[in-house]
Amino acid sequence: MRIATLIIYLAALLCAGCATTGTGTGEGSFMDRYSGSRQLTQAETMLKGGDTHGAMHVLDGICNGPAVAGVTDEALFRLALLTLKAKPGSAQAQHLLKRLKKEYPGSQWTALAAPVSEQVNALEEQRRQNKALKGSNQALSREITELNQRLEQLKNLDQELEKKAR
């Protein structure tokens, strides 16, 4: 009986030690890892069921919770993709991708996010160029309108001069 009590006591002590010891390097505690893994599975199930909004909510909770390598990095990547799907070029998605790269540089999810991040940056650059071109186009349209008005005025003056010359 004493051996069973000792084993239970040691098991409880080991679990309590794991649950309360965080490394501070993004690895998280045993309980954080377990909880995060369960939430990731829940988000995947929601996505398979078509509940994108619910999955995004769960992934956001993981991203805002304790940092756990292998869990938080995957959640950041998946949330960034879902955010981009909902709103291409989203500033929030860009922030999530930057955070992933900064906090988990060696993660496989960071490697997968690199081309996505490049595409988002290219999209943002195209948007800036389009905005500049629209501004130039508007300025040229105004200038054309002014030139057409001046041309009409010159035609009217020319017609008046012809009338006076007769």
Helices and strands, with pairings:
Elements (H helix, E strand, L loop, with lengths): L1 H19 L9 H19 L3 H13 L7 H15 L4 H13 L4 H58 L1
Helix pairs in contact: 2-3, 3-4, 4-5, 4-6, 5-6
Describe the structure.
The chain has 166 residues and is mainly α. The protein has helices at residues 2-20, 30-48, 52-64, 72-86, 91-103, 108-165. It has one domain (26-165): Alpha Horseshoe (Serine Threonine Protein Phosphatase 5, Tetratricopeptide repeat), CATH 1.25.40. It contains 6 helices and no strands. α3 (52-64) crosses α4 and α4 runs parallel beside α6. The chain starts with a helix and ends with a helix.
Distance between the termini: 130 Å
Using only C-alpha atoms, the radius of gyration works out to 31 Å
CATH topology: Serine Threonine Protein Phosphatase 5, Tetratricopeptide repeat
Q: Which architecture per CATH?
A: Alpha Horseshoe
CATH class: Mainly Alpha
Report the count of strand segments: 0
Measured as a percent range, the helix fraction is over 70%
Number of domains: 1
Number of helices: 6
By secondary-structure content and strand pairing, the structural class works out as mainly alpha
Signal peptide: 1-21
Coiled coil: 123-164
Keywords: Coiled coil, Lipoprotein, Signal
Protein name: Lipoprotein
